[in-house]
């Protein structure tokens, strides 16, 4: 009963993958991947990324992944007889600047599509400008379902290549119940952040609908950090797992505090946890028995991902991570759309993106024509002594 209910809501099956994993910077500017001086000879793609401010690390990684995809396309002869010129600009993790960047790219008059932004707030601000200028905007990482549609109406120029945030929460509920065998769970989250509040809500709904019980629901304080009061409530409730929709800073701090307090149950987190930066906040010793959603699962069973990791390390002299992979896949979907359209015209690309299907690093990625939702594989990864390893592969 429990199994059929969750599976019917997620439409996902479970397959085991054996893995081992690892985790980008490239100078900012109009860094063309093989651009030429003739406007007619290039296809110009914009980037609207957080290259400074709180999410600079993520922005640099996503940008570098996209650069690699465009470089590979250019090295293979380009697209429809033309080279791709990539123009990444900095929105400084600010929604007003995200709109300004979009206006700047649109004002050029020669940009075919834009990759970005990284967060739901910035993507929403940029989309207003994209729609006004009839320019496709593809986010590699903004998983808010409202970004591509609302009240049954699809936003014609808005696309994403990542999983919906609410589906991450559903996936973790499925994993906790069926793989870890948990019947009780606690949730620790920051109620001030829309993303984390939504994840907490959907995890609770999926977990309880399938017969599980939430025994504690703790909101962190204004600092975003897990407090001793939160820990005391969790200890008293004795959950079998703890879901923590938090970023790698607050999440890492929370992991450390929970482990130092003697709470050793499995901790579950979102895709924001796949970064070596979480090690600095949690410490290697605390990063055990911890699971998180990911797009990144290096394995001999996933040769395309291994090839990407090798190429990225060679190009940027540093290991790839989930964010580099997200940038690479978003650029790959756009490259496929240009091929499909046989054109660099923004409207032709928009049409080609609807219903497009291409091979990502973990398997097939498809953008549904009706609602621009993404159907794609995901993994649940696990930390063991501070290192991330893929644990399960979920395929549509």
TrEMBL record:
TM spans (from-to): none
List the keywords (alphabetical).
Answer: Signal
One Pfam family assigned to this protein is Peripla_BP_6
Which residue spans adopt a coiled-coil conformation according to this UniProt entry?
none
Q: Member of which family?
A: Belongs to the leucine-binding protein family.
Q: Which residues form the Leucine-binding protein domain?
A: 42-381
Q: Which PANTHER family match?
A: LEUCINE-SPECIFIC-BINDING PROTEIN, PERIPLASMIC BINDING PROTEIN OF ABC TRANSPORTER FOR NATURAL AMINO ACIDS
**Domain of life from the UniProt record:** Bacteria
Q: What name appears for this protein in its UniProt entry?
A: ABC transporter substrate-binding protein
Asked whether the keyword Glycoprotein is assigned, the reply is no
């Amino acid at each position: 009963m429990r199994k059929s209910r969750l599976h019917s809501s997620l439409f996902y099956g479970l397959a085991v993958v054996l893995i081992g994993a690892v985790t980008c910077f490239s100078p900012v500017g109009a860094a063309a991947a093989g651009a030429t001086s003739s406007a007619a000879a290039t296809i110009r793609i914009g980037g609207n990324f957080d290259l400074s401010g709180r999410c600079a690390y993520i922005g640099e990684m996503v940008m570098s992944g996209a650069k690699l995809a465009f470089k590979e396309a250019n090295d293979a002869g380009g697209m429809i007889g033309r080279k791709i010129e990539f123009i990444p600009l900095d929105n400084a993790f600010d929604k007003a600047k995200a709109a300004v960047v979009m206006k700047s790219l649109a004002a050029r008059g020669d940009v075919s599509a834009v990759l970005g932004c990284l967060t739901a707030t910035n993507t929403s601000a940029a989309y207003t400008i994209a729609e006004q200028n009839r320019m496709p905007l593809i986010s590699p990482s903004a998983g808010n379902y409202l970004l591509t549609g609302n009240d049954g109406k699809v936003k014609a120029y808005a696309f994403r290549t990542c999983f919906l945030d609410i589906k991450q929460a559903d996936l973790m509920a499925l994993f906790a119940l069926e793989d870890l065998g948990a019947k009780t769970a606690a949730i620790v989250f920051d109620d001030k952040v829309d993303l984390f509040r939504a994840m907490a809500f959907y995890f609770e709904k999926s977990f309880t609908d399938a017969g599980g019980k939430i025994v504690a629901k703790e909101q962190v304080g204004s600092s975003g950090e897990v407090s001793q009061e939160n820990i005391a409530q969790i200890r008293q409730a004795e959950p079998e797992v703890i879901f923590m929709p938090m970023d790698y800073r607050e999440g890492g701090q929370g992991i450390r505090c929970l482990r130092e307090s003697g709470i050793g149950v499995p901790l579950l987190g979102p895709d924001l946890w796949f970064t070596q930066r979480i090690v600095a906040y949690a410490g290697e010793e605390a990063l055990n028995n911890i699971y998180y959603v990911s797009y990144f699962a290096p394995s001999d069973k996933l040769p395309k991902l291994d090839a990407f990791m090798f190429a990225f390390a060679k190009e940027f002299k540093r290991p790839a991570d989930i964010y580099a992979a997200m940038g690479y896949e978003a650029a790959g979907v756009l490259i496929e759309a240009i091929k499909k359209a046989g054109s660099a015209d923004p409207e032709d690309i928009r049409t080609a993106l609807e219903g497009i299907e291409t091979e990502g690093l973990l398997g097939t990625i498809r953008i549904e024509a009706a609602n621009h939702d993404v159907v794609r594989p995901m993994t649940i990864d696990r930390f063991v002594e501070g290192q991330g390893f893929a644990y399960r592969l979920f395929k549509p």
